[in-house]
Write a structure and sequence with these properties.
Layout lengths: L3 E5 L10 H11 L2 E5 L3 H9 L5 E5 L11 H11 L4 E10 L8 H18 L3 E6 L2 H11 L6 E3 L6 H9 L3 E4 L9 H8 L6 E3 L21 H12 L3 H16 L3 H7 L1
The structure holds zinc ion.
Length: 262
């Protein structure tokens, strides 16, 4: 099994000029990838890219709770029924700059989408920024009804990591784990059981150290895989195979299919 990118935003306008090239490069470098939604429109655009090794998650980011009204949930339900949709996300809480999105509105939108994931029996992709306490108490309520989840672009505390593992969730690391100053984050990765570890790019953001500052793209996930292999003390091939198997199991992507497509 080859590399996979469990979290990228290939539908954003930063790829408008050369999306076909990026898609071709991604398909060459990776077995498969998941395009993540953050608004209703981007969720729909992600679903439109599905097929031939491209899967999608649909959901609304905590910056846009106003989209998660009855009509928005109906739209997400519709999109989630399309072929290739494997998760609800990214959803969660973000208290870093919530001027436009008050915590109460974020929490309501988060809960509504968690309920949708329970209804549709889909795993969730969780975004957290400076909101560990509220996010944790909400997930304490829902995790048992969910078929799994991902703490995406992990950069949280030890306590949050422990809680996430307790929920049975997977922990996904992005390019920031390769940064020289990220030793603390690499130490956390040591504590993630190998069968719960995932890798992602979060492209176009967070390009790994060797390509830092550039627009990130899915093929760069190999740099993150190299760093995590060192951290876990395994070979690169072992790291790639294990993280791909973990992701395939969580998203219920048939391994035969992903191999045939590679
Ligand atoms: Zn993202």
């Amino acid at each position: 099994m080859g590399l996979v990118d469990t979290h990228c935003h290939l539908q954003t306008d930063r790829f408008d000029e050369d999306r076909d090239e990026i898609l071709a490069r991604s398909r060459e470098a990776l077995d498969w990838l998941v395009v993540i939604g953050d608004t209703l429109a981007s969720s729909e655009a992600g679903v439109a890219l599905c097929g031939d090794g491209i899967y999608a998650a649909v959901g609304v980011h905590p910056y846009h709770p106003e989209e998660v009204i009855e009509a928005g949930l109906t739209k997400l339900r519709e999109l989630a029924a399309r072929p290739g949709v494997v998760a609800i996300g990214e959803i969660g809480l973000d208290y870093y700059k919530y001027n436009d999105a008050p915590p109460e509105a974020q929490q309501a939108a988060f809960r509504a989408q968690l309920e949708l994931a329970v209804e549709l029996d889909l795993p969730v992709v969780i975004h957290n920024r400076e909101s560990e306490d509220d996010l944790s108490s909400i997930l304490d309520e829902y995790h048992q009804s969910l078929p799994g989840g991902i703490l995406h672009c992990f950069a949280g505390s030890d306590a949050y990591l422990e809680r996430g593992l307790g929920w049975g969730f997977h922990i996904s690391f992005a390019g920031n784990v390769t940064f020289p100053k990220a030793q603390e984050l690499r130490d956390r990765a040591v504590d993630v059981p190998f069968d719960r570890l995932l890798i992602e790019t979060d492209s176009p953001y967070l390009a790994p150290q060797p390509v830092r500052g550039k627009r990130c793209e899915p093929a760069y996930v190999r740099h993150t895989a190299e760093t995590l292999a060192e951290v876990k003390g395994v070979s690169y091939d072992e790291l790639v195979a294990q993280t791909a198997a973990n992701a395939a199991r969580l998203f219920r992507i048939p391994v035969e299919k992903s191999q045939a497509e590679s």
